[in-house]
Every structure is written in C-alpha cells, then in structure tokens.
Design brief:
This protein has helices at 18-22, 27-32, 52-55, 100-108, 124-145, 152-169, 187-196, 213-228, 231-235, 248-262, 282-286, 292-309, 334-343, 361-377, 393-406, 430-434, 457-481, 485-488; strands at residues 37-40, 47-50, 84-90, 175-180, 201-206, 237-240, 272-278, 316-321, 348-353, 382-385. By secondary structure, the chain is of the alpha/beta class. It starts with 17 loop residues before the first helix and ends in an 8-residue tail after the last helix.
Length: 496
C-alpha cells in the first residue's frame, strides 16, 4: 500500500428543459446513482428531480483542447458574486526519508485502510504505530531508490497549476487547491486556505479515475466530517465528482500514451498490453459494495475500444498490485500474472499503471524495478511502461471540462435547518451515490458483517481474526513491558 469536458456557457438558465441540464451530469455520477437525486442550481437555488428514466439519458461528454494562451489570474477569481474553487484530493507521500514512518502511521491509522471490528477499534492507532515502525525500513529502501522521497506532491501541484490555467482559458476563473489524505498539504490545510480565500462555490475532484472506499471514499469521509463541524463550510455551495474514468478526454489521453509507447517495440502488434491497477481487499467489493472493480474493468474496456478505433488490436489483460497483509485482495495479482504470462511465452509486455495519474513509488519502484525484474526473469524479453498522465494536455483539459460541467450542480447545504443538512454530495445521498456511505450514520459500514458467533463461515473467519489479533496484542505487550504471563511462566525469555 502506497501513496496509494465541451466548452459550456457559464450562465445556464434554470428554465431550460430537464434533459438539457441532465446531459451535463458527468457519466460517472450517472452510473453510480440508483435512486432519484436532487440538484440545486447555483444561480436560482431551484431544485430539479431526476427520475430513473432521465438518468439513463446521460450522454458522453465532448472534449475540447486547451487554448495555448491563458489569462493572468487575479488573487480572488470571481464570477458574479461567487468565488470558485476546485479541491484536488490525493493520498500524498513522504517527501524525505524521515517522513516515511509518520506517513505510514497516518496511512494505517485510517479505518478505511485497516478496518477493525468495533470491539477492537481502540487498537487502531497502536496497531498503526506497530505496522509503521515495522514497515518503515523496507519502505525507506524503496523511497531511497526513487530519489529519497515521493514526487507526488510536486506533480500534483503542477497538475493544479495547469488545471487552473485550463479553466481560465475556458472563461471559468477559479482557484485550485491540493488536499492530501496522509501527508502535507493535508486536506485540513487546504480547507483552511479555501476559507481564507473566501471561496463560495467548491468543486471537489479526487485524482482517482475510479472510485474506491479506500481512496476517494476515505478522503470524502474526512471532508464530510470537516464540513459538518464548520459553519463557513455549511454555507459554502459544493459538489463532488467521485469518479471520471468514463470521460472521453481521459480515455483518449490514455490511448495516446499507450499508442506512443507501443511504437518503441520492434513488433508493436505482438506486444501484450498489461494494465496494472492498485488492488483493494476483496471484501470491500463483495461485501461493502465498493464499485472499484467494475469501474476498473469498464475503464480498461473503454480504452481498448478507443485503441481499436485506431486499428490497435493487441491482446491485453488486467491485474492488481500492491496487496498488503494476509487477507484476500482483488485478483489476479500482478506478480502472479507476470509469471504466468512468461510461462505462456509472452515476450513483449507493455505495463500500463491504470489507476494512477501521477508518478510515485508504485510506478517508479514497484512497476519499473520489481515487476520489470520479475518479467525478465519469467521469460519476457522486451519490457515497456506507459508513463502516468501527469500534466498531459488532453487529460488536464478534460479535467477542466469535468469541473465546468459540474458547476450547474453545485448546491448549498441546508442553512435554515442545520439538522437537515445535505450530504457532501448534493447529487443524492452519499449512500446511494457512492454505494458505501450513509450521511445519517456519518461513517462507512464495515466491509463484512461486524460480528457473528457460531460455526458459520463468516463467524469462524471473524473469530479467527479476533484470536490472532489478541495473540498479537499480548505479544506486543510482553515485548514492550517485559511483564506478563509468558514471562511469569518462563517462556518469553527464550525468545530473547
């Protein structure tokens, strides 16, 4: 686990036909929403009710390239009486080797990363401390191999700057902010800057093409808790683009990179395209309703469809990397798939980091070093890797269009009745839209049944996990305190 779109006029009349407004709704949002959603328009605060039938009419967005010239932005961009902000969310990463252990602690202290039963949630931080200290030396080796720290912050800052330029070139002046989940600049820091700048309309844009509980979900859960406790944020209009893997500009940008890298092979048509995505625990998908797997598979299909339009019909496969711990993760695993492809005689392999839009340790070290070595040892003769999107112009322009298209749906949280506040995503309840949230409970449901006693399969799984966790805690206490029944019985000293 690591740091883990058509130009639209600004003023849109609320009297326009329903289908006109609805065509602006990002496709990713349409695919996730199951029941009706209510959208509040920024200019008139009028509400529209979208039925199941109207949602099925969502159309693909069009792409527009960024104009080469950009306008100079004043300190506080204003459209009418509104100040527009865009908040980019990402995991973050340690910038120095000294940052590695505290970064890992922040990562594993997140209940969306390590999900303990309610009975053992008091162990979240002690367990995170133990794991971070245990894993830090190995992780430091990886970060040392890529220059002594993660480049994620610099790349994300550059993406934010390019996105701001693209928005201004499309006549939408906006400030763009970066909020990291586990390292600086933290989401809380970005929110404080947003408040200082007096932003009145905010578009939240996670830099994860596909939604997952452990990435976008974790960041949105944190944001929701911040919003509920701050009166300024209660009054600030906002919306979220939870995933955007279906957008035409993103798909074309990925296809462009793949097409370019294929040309580096002597025989491009015989090269296997290997999509490698970050994995998530299987329970997230099967028992918590995480849409990550289905969105990832659809994303790969859309990219291959775009390549087929260009007469590129290479064989391809999808696998998942970066699993941690003894639990089962999404399969097939990247390392096992590479070995299997080598046994089957695949000689040319082009790796595509499909779930990442920035270079970081999982691309620069895990893919470029570990998986490349494994591929060559397994019989693959020619290895290539598609770079992450970074500041690729078509990609940045597409993100700008996504922001523009979401602006008519920016809605205010209820102010007159604080108990009736809307969820962070005004395009419907978070539960329905993201398939993993409940704005009333204010917390994510567990990925599996919380607890169960007896001889059922689920019960035995949880009972076994509880027993292993209890043993681990006892051993940690014995080692750290030098006291306990193992010492009293004369067993523990033999381990010294």
């Amino acid at each position: 686990m690591a740091e883990s779109i058509a130009m639209l006029p600004w003023s849109i009349s609320s009297n326009a036909p329903l289908d006109h407004h609805h065509r602006l709704l990002p496709r990713a949002l349409c695919s996730l929403s199951r029941n009706f959603t209510i959208s509040r328009f920024s200019s008139t605060q009028s509400s529209l009710l979208f039925s199941e039938k109207s949602r099925q009419k969502c159309a693909p967005a069009l792409k527009v390239l960024v104009k080469p010239e950009t306008q100079a932005a004043p300190a506080t961009p204003i459209i009418g009486n509104d100040k527009i902000g865009v908040l980019l969310l990402n995991l973050g990463g340690p910038e120095t080797l000294d940052d590695v252990q505290p970064f890992l602690f922040n990562l594993f202290a997140d209940p969306d990363i390590i999900r303990l039963p309610r009975l053992f949630r008091f162990l979240q931080k002690p367990l995170a401390q133990f794991i971070s200290v245990f894993r830090a030396p190995k992780s430091k080796e990886g970060y040392a191999a890529i220059g002594g720290g993660s480049p994620l912050r610099k790349i994300t800052d550059a993406q934010a700057e390019e996105l701001k330029k693209a928005l201004w070139s499309k006549n939408v002046p906006a400030n763009v902010y970066v909020g990291m989940r586990y390292w600086h600049p933290f989401t809380e820091e970005a929110i404080e800057q947003i408040k200082r700048d007096g932003i009145t309309k905010l578009v939240v844009l996670p830099l994860y093409p596909q939604f997952s509980i452990s990435t976008s979900g974790s960041s949105l859960r944190l944001l929701e808790s911040i919003f509920r406790e701050d009166e300024y944020l209660v009054n600030m209009q906002h919306t979220v683009i939870p995933s955007w893997y279906q957008r035409e500009g993103y798909i074309k940008a990925m296809a462009n990179l793949i097409e370019k890298e294929l040309k580096n092979f002597d025989n491009p048509r015989k090269c296997m395209i290997f999509f490698s995505a970050h994995g998530v625990p299987l329970a997230y998908v099967e028992e918590a309703g995480d849409p990550y797997k289905s969105e990832m598979e659809e994303c790969v299909d859309l990219i291959m469809e775009e390549l087929e339009k260009r007469n590129i019909t290479n064989p391809y496969t999808l696998a998942y990397q970066s699993r941690v711990g003894p639990v089962e993760w999404l399969k097939p695993y990247t390392d096992e798939t590479i070995i299997d492809l080598g046994k089957k005689g695949v000689k040319n392999l082009l790796a595509v980091p499909i779930s990442f839009v920035s270079e970081h340790i999982e691309t620069l070290e895990e893919i470029d070093v570990e998986y490349k070595e494994l591929a060559l040892e397994s019989g693959v003769e020619n290895w290539g890797r598609v770079p992450a999107l970074g500041c690729e112009p078509t990609f940045i322009s597409d993100l700008a269009d996504a922001v523009i298209e979401s602006l008519p749906y920016v809605g205010a949280m209820a102010v007159s009745n604080l108990e009736a506040r809307q969820s962070l995503v005004p395009l419907g309840s978070v539960e329905e839209l993201l398939a993993a949230y409940d704005s009333q409970r204010r917390e994510l449901p567990p990925p599996v049944t919380v607890w169960e006693w007896g001889w059922t399969k689920s019960a035995e799984t949880w009972n076994g996990r509880a027993a292993m966790l209890a043993v681990l805690v006892l051993l940690v206490l014995e080692v750290t305190t030098g006291e306990g029944f193992l010492h009293q019985w004369g067993i523990m000293p033999f381990f010294r």
